[in-house]
């Protein structure tokens, strides 16, 4: 009986831990989501959610906006970077 009780206790604690982590990730993702109005230009989504454009901006520095403008082939677009936005033309 003691072994079954120990397994049940471990299972319940790990399930609670997984639920806590999932809840925390949900709220962090919701807090980092960039709000875009309908009147703003189309959004260029990063390949890695939330930090993709930030990582790319560190690598490409001054050429990021020029490269994004050429890649998306839109007259103007919105680039979300963390909680901020940048317009690219």
What characteristics describe this protein?
55% helix, 2 domains, 89 residues, mainly alpha, two-stranded antiparallel sheet
Structure in words:
This protein is mainly alpha-helical. It has two domains: 1-32; 36-89, no CATH class. It has three helices and two strands, in the order H-H-H-E-E. The protein has helices spanning 2-32, 52-60, 64-72, and strands at 77-81, 84-88. A two-stranded antiparallel ribbon has the order 1-2. Strand 1 (77-81) and strand 2 (84-88) form a beta hairpin. The relative contact order is 0.14. The model has no long low-confidence stretch (mean pLDDT 77).
Mean pLDDT: 77
- Classification by helices and strands: mainly alpha
Report the helical percentage. 55-70%
Spatial separation of the terminal alpha carbons: 69 Å
> What's the number of helices?
3
Quick gist of this model?
The chain is mainly alpha-helical.
Topology (elements, then pairings):
Layout: H1 2-32, H2 52-60, H3 64-72, E1 77-81, E2 84-88
Antiparallel strand pairs: 1-2
């Amino acid at each position: 009986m003691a072994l079954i009780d120990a397994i049940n206790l471990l299972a319940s604690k790990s399930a609670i831990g997984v639920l806590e982590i999932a809840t925390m990730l949900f709220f962090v993702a919701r807090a980092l989501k960039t709000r875009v109005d309908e009147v703003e230009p189309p959004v260029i989504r990063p390949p890695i959610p939330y930090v993709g454009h930030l990582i790319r901006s560190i690598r490409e520095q001054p050429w990021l906006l020029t490269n994004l403008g050429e890649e998306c082939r839109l007259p103007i677009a919105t680039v979300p970077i963390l909680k901020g936005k940048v317009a690219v033309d």
